[in-house]
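Hey, resending since the last one bounced:
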Amino acid sequence: MNDYTAEQTVFLFPGQASQYVGMGQDIFDSSAPVRELYAFASEEIGEDIAKISFEGPADVLKQTRFTQPAILLHSLAALTVLDGALEAKYAAGHSLGEYGALVAAGSLTAKDAIRLVVKRASLMEKSSQETPGTMAAIVGLDLQTVEKLCAEVSGAHGSVCAANINSAIPIVVSGNFATVEKLAEIAKENGAKRAIMLEVGGAFHSVLMQSAKDGMAAALTGVEIESPALTFIPNVSAEAVNSPADIRSLLKRQITAPVRWGQTMELLKSAGIKQVFEIGPNKVLIGLAKRSIAPEKMISLDKLSDIEKVLSPATT
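The structure tokens again:
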């Protein structure tokens, strides 16, 4: 029996950097509808995304144009096998994960989410090639200080901004190589415990992604978006939103806006969340939830065996 109500439960969907070679293969092998989703995505991408997801190599899987659809497909595969057996009141996703959250909430169809993420991934990879950049994790400084230092460093030769505002872990900054490196240097001079350059494919969630943002605005125009059946919390505002027009706008804006995950966790904590399901590869969001909202029950739905465990009470 589930000891928690839907009102006490949230579905969380991971984003880029949660991937690993082999993810989702057990779910794929068990379900014909899941295999159909992978086949559909492969047609959209023009590559065999199942083969890349399951066999890699890792340096190919980590390419943005493959990483994003691969992670989304893993989340959609889990949702497909769950087939509505679990209930939650809230849904949120970390950056890319918003698309999985919107499928769970009934706002997007699985195929529309795949189309959009394939386009998003392609646009972001292209933008990274046109305007190269990087990201760094700043440990031991508060957001106000990091934003002040970003303003000081940014100028005619480049920009850097807070891009990933989590709670209980470093603030991630994003921008041109030179400005991010300079920010890392002065952060340590201003009391940061560490400043860690990250191995990423671009300056995500910064103004360097503007061309990708423009491309997503066009891609989103022709897609049907329904009002969410769950309480959907977007990254840009970390406030619940219900309007399809607002969701469309926020999906565009999130390309260059920071991920306010810490505020999302604060909202969920204040809502009395006691149960977290992370739907997709790895357990990154469960780790963040544990440190920020300390739910009583945290379940990763990564492997087929994880899904079977939560389904078993309904089938016995």
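Residues 99 and 113 are 6 Å apart (CA to CA).

Sorry for the duplicate.
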